[in-house]
Amino acid sequence: MIPSRFDYHRPDSVDGAVALLTKYGDEARAIAGGHSLIPMMKLRMAEVQHLVDLQGIDSMKGVSVAGGTVTIGAMMTQHELIANEALAKAAPIIREASLQIADPQVRYVGTIGGNLANGDPGNDMPGLMQCLDATYVLAGPDGTREVAARDFYEAAYFTARSDDEILVSVRFTAPKGGYAYEKQKRKIGDYATAAAAVLIEKDGATCAATSIAMTNLSDTPVWCEAAGAALVGSKLDKSAIDAAVAAMLPTIDPQEDNRGPVEFKKHVAGVMLRRAIERAASRA
Amino acid sequence: MNEMTPPKAERAEALKGLGTARKRVEDARFTQGKGNYVDDLKLPGMLFGDFVRSPYAHARVKSINADKAKAIPGVIAVLTADDLRPLNLHWMPTLAGDVQMVLADGKVLFQGQEVAFVVAEDRYIAADAVELVEVEYEELPVVVDPFKAQADDAPVLREDLAGKTEGAHGPRRHHNHIFTWEQGDKDATDAVLGSADVVAEEMVYYHRTHPCPLETCGCVASMDKVNGKLTVHGTFQAPHAVRTVASLISGIAEHNIRIISPDIGGGFGNKVGVYPGYICAIVASIVTGVPVKWVEDRMDNLMATAFARDYWMKGKIAATKDGKITGLWCHVTADHGAFDACADPTKFPAGFFNICTGSYDIPTAYLAVDGIYTNKAPGGVAYRCSFRVTEAAYFIERMIEVLAIELGMDAAELRAKNFIKKEQFPYQSALGWEYDSGDYHTAWDKALSAVGYTELRKEQAERVEAFKRGETRKLLGIGLCHFTEIVGAGPVKNCDILGLGMFDSCEIRIHPTGSAIARLGTISQGQGHATTFAQILASEIGISADDITIEEGDTDTAPYGLGTYGSRSTPVAGAATAMAGRKIRAKAQMIAAYLLEVHDNDVEWDIDRFMVKGAPERFKTMKEIAFASYNQAIPGLEPGLEAVSYYDPPNMTYPFGAYICVMEIDVDTGEHEIRQFYALDDCGTRINPMIIEGQVHGGATEGYAIAMGQELAYDDMGNVKTGTLMDFFIPTSWETPHYTTDHTVTPSPHHPIGAKGVGESPNVGSVPAFSNAVHDAFRPFGLKQAHMPHDHWRIWKIARDLGLHG
Ligand SMILES: Cc1cc2nc3c(=O)[nH]c(=O)nc-3n(C[C@H](O)[C@H](O)[C@H](O)COP(=O)(O)OP(=O)(O)OC[C@H]3O[C@@H](n4cnc5c(N)ncnc54)[C@H](O)[C@@H]3O)c2cc1C
After folding, report:
1. ipTM value of the model?
2. What was the pLDDT predicted at B303?
3. Which of B46, B289, B476, B571 has the most crowded CB, counting CB atoms within 10 A?
4. A 188-207: CB under 8 A from B
5. SS3 of B174, please?
6. What pLDDT sits at residue B249?
């Protein structure tokens, strides 16, 4: 559990960080909270010669809510997201989901940027950002570009971000209506057995719009367009929810691990989605 | 002087003796981070050792090339079996009469096995070098299933035992067979089973898990080439035994070896055995002439040092129609891994598993245990229990439930009907033990009424109906357990480890000003010995516990003892403490009589002093007596006030308890919630109620983990699947249930203060209670047996298999 040798850099600007990543290429990695990266280094599954610490970059901090648009700096810790009242008002699903990530110690250091950039299917925030239809702002040697969360994840640990780019912030439109984040895990500090993020807008008693995303049930987060569509126009009754669950199941591809066999995970995915829809509907 | 004497009650309270909820004296340093653990030790010039471990569970080692590793600056040496061979240390004896490879000798037999030992200037360099040692393996077929291991064509694991048909515990009947251990009367049991009204039969598996102490195993070996003395600081639960073993295998004279156990961050059996790391660190220190440290990381600990349990227990239990148990039959297939390194008393290769008749008066019984080799790590230690007692308690408490199902009877009633009655003690069990004392019915009734058992059963029945009507997806389980432990090994006549009788010891010195130091042969790993042993002594010698230092763990100063495990410290060393205290008091009596100018028989003990019979105003306090022992020439008495006692217990002690768990189970997710956990313990005389409560909380939490998710799982290739705390379940405060503790007091008749030991009861008693709650929830739907751990997916699977998902 001891990493191999590495050099440590602490730039104070995004440009400085990008320059280091460009200079050292393959040998360099950004480090944010380190709570995903450092365990990998200790297990020697990640060999990093140059660690580029993003902690010194003030411009990557902060949350702004302006004109219905929410922007979150990538270096905001999960704890800071939970504590931010403006954010809790604009997008309460973030607090609800963040409180289900790991434990307080991890949340004091783990960042939203690290959680999103990591590409680990176990991370909760990528699914959440797909649900919110967020946009990621990436800075690279050729300036900045934007990528939709729903286009960002390619496979486990493979994303649309290239090695010399840094995720500087995420942006999304503040959601309206009801929300819920449902997650089953074995214990505090565990990743999801299955998790569901749900947003629901109602027009009277009728479901007007939805967004649904599932976590840790495939090698990427899964945004379930069809499942959401199954609810729209319905009264969010049992048959509509059944239809949404039925539409979700073919889109996931869970693998057997210590959390259980495939059949169990599919079952739990259904239960999580059902509960999330019910709770979101009750809040809409 | 008369008016100055405080009342008796006040003086007794000031002693902080038996029965006082005295705060733990250890906690001042532990809560401030001022403990002194092995890894805190830094000696001048100290080197660091680390292992190259096998990635395979079974493979031939074709070659080891350490050239690249040795080329790294700061790497001092890379040891392999070939380097240890000339010293005859490439293999070592185990505590169970087997031998174990120190470093891979031609082949490896489990994943994580030690292959080479890198010695470097610091642990970082060592870790880099480990990566660069090139080992060429040729994979061999792996067997992780102890039943498959017994097939005729199963791979031969232990080639070193080829042709050996006799093992340390009798004949071996197969190349992967270690021993068969039989107890009780086979023919009589067969006869009972053959003619019984009812026979319930079940296979009960107690899965492999690991004690996983917070602090892993480690040591610092330091050979002083000038004076020829070897000092080893290490995480040892039995420092004296380690010294003797080290002397026997190294040839270094025993007086030249000093073993020191500093603060230990939990042991739970994991730190009883002797590990390759200790041997390699010692050899490396002898070779280099400087201290060498070896400390495991968490993955090493889970993968390579001693596991616990892994017992497949097939049972048959016979009873009359109305529920009187008439016989018990049990066959255990015990998976010992690649080497038999169980830490049991020599004559007990399956520990005290023959306590498996439990709390019940079962007239006829038979037990056979087959020990089997597989491609898994060695161990089989008593994880917070006396030797194999948790397995035994789980077995009988499951069999009782299975019998209750067969009889259609309430499981609480079935237990009460079969308890050994108060007046039957001392009770001779069918499998050979003499239970010292007990009052099971009283404890059981108290437990049932405390939880409102009858009401709970009603609620459960209503819940089942509501479930069937589709109004709820949650079931209610009521988990019962009445356990009897057997602890305090043990009488020298039948208990030894490597020929060392399992007595224990205490040596007391009273200082001139009336304070004291007591040294014991045991070693605390969190049990609070420094607190409780001082309390035992305070009550015996009338000196406040606050004025008594308890010291353990240094073989150069402590009297010889067999260490701390199997709840033996209080039953054995605690008894030695009381007995040594009584010797002090006997001498103090003579001194007091001399000072008071009366005959020895004319003074009597009064809490903290001797007084003249009939003249309470004439007395000498222990403080005065202590000083006199150093400054008066008393005819016929040597100066000073010291005593030592080596205590050989006449019998084991038999703590017992009644535990009840009420659990809610979500049939859709497999999640559970512990609504109530009630733990009644009877550990005889209670030394410190607060420490008892703490021990119960800790042990029950371990039991909760084991029952509900903790396991050391292997895949078919012998890969450890749960090698980190991400997957190996250790509950956080969030998951940990709330406990209600309670007690009855049935003193041990043969122990000097009537104490029985409690540290392990909660692990022994809680596992069946948690597991039975899961089973009980599904009993109305036809569940008979489902193996632990009851994690989410396994509970979900029970529900699915019973058709509860529609
Ligand atoms: C015990 C434990 C339990 C956990 N449980 C959960 C859980 O339940 N749910 C969950 O979602 N997470 C969980 N986590 C992960 C935790 O939330 C991490 O902190 C998070 O996933 C990564 O954030 P970080 O800031 O620590 O990233 P780091 O570990 O520093 O980085 C992770 C990866 O992202 C890259 N990276 C980081 N920031 C940027 C950036 N701005 N731009 C480009 N690349 C970047 C790094 O190079 C690295 O490859 C757990 C972690 C631990 C230790």
Report:
1. 0.96
2. 97
3. B571
4. 188-190, 193
5. coil
6. 86
pLDDT at B3: 54
Strand pairing class (B166-167; B170-171) = antiparallel
Q: Which of A188, A259, A271 sits opposite B732 (nearest CB)?
A: A188
Domain boundary among A139, A173, A207: A173
A96: in domain:
yes
Do B29 and B126 lie in a common domain?
A: no
Separation CA B778–CA B798 (nearest Å) = 8
For B617, the token pair is 């105003």
Give whole-number Cα distances, A124 to A114, A147, A213, B590, in Å.
Answer: 11, 19, 10, 76
Beta-bridge partners for A213:
A197, A223
Determine the residue of A101, A108, A152 to mutate for testing ligand 1's pocket, defined as the one with the most ligand atoms within 8 A of the Cβ atom.
A101
Structural domain ending residue among the three candidates A173, A199, A215: A173
**A5 vs B contacts (CB less than 8 Å):** 124, 128
| Domain count for chain B | 3
Domain of residue B529, CATH code: 3.30.365.10
Q: Is B507 a catalytic residue?
A: no
- Is B113 marked active-site? no
Alpha carbon of B526 to those of B16, B25, B305, B504, B567: distances in Å?
20, 11, 20, 19, 13
Q: Are residue B666 and residue B756 in the same domain, yes or no?
A: yes
Segment A209-229, tens digit of pLDDT: 999 999 999 999 999 999 999
Which residues partner with B203 through β-bridges?
B314
Cα–Cα nearest to B300, from B427, B362, B213: B213
pLDDT, tens digit, 9 for 90 and up, residues B701-733: 999 999 999 999 999 999 999 999 999 999 999
d(CA A153, CA A161): 9
The answer to whether residue A29 scores a pLDDT higher than 80 is yes
Distance CA B396, CA A206 (A): 58
Question: How many Å lie between the centroid of ligand 1 and the Cα of residue A79?
Answer: 13
Give the β-pairing of A50-53 and A7-9: parallel
- Listed in sequence order, the DSSP H helices in B606-708 are 622-631, 689-708
Looking up tokens 């901090």 gives: A61
Helix (H) or strand (E) holding A201: strand A194-203
The arithmetic mean of pLDDT across residues A143-153, rounded, is 98
Tokens 């699977």 sit on residue: B797
Q: Which of residues 657-716 of B touch A (CB under 8 A)?
A: 668-671, 709, 713
Looking at residue B221, its pLDDT comes to 98
Q: Which of B76, B30, B27 has the alpha carbon at shortest distance from B49?
A: B76
pLDDT given for residue B143 in this prediction: 98
Average pLDDT over residues A114-125: 97
B131 touches chain A (CB under 8 A): yes
Contact B525, B267 (CB under 8 A): yes
> In terms of residue numbers, what domain contains A19?
7-53
Range(s) of the domain holding residue B573? 2-35+504-647
User: B529-541 and B575-596 are packed helices; what angle lies between their axes, rounded to 10 degrees?
Assistant: 30
Say what the pLDDT of residue A135 is: 98
Structure tokens at A141: 């040697």
Q: Does B422 share its domain with B480?
A: yes
Residues of B with Cβ-Cβ distance to A1 under 8 angstroms: 297-299
Cβ of B668 within 8 Å of Cβ of A271? The answer is yes
What is residue B1's predicted lDDT score, i.e. its pLDDT? 45
CB B224 within 8 A of CB B740: no
**Within an 8 Å CB–CB cutoff, is residue A77 touching chain B?**
no
Tally Cβ neighbours within 10 Å of residue B768.
Answer: 30
- The answer as to whether A2 is a domain residue is no
- Closest ligand 1 atom to Cα of A124: 11
Mean pLDDT, chain A, rounded, equals: 97
Residue B393 is encoded by which pair of tokens? 């308690």
If asked whether residues A33 and A102 sit together in one domain, one would say no
Residue A165 and residue A199 in one domain: no
Q: How far is A1 from chain B (nearest CA, A)?
A: 7
- What's the pLDDT score for residue B567? 84
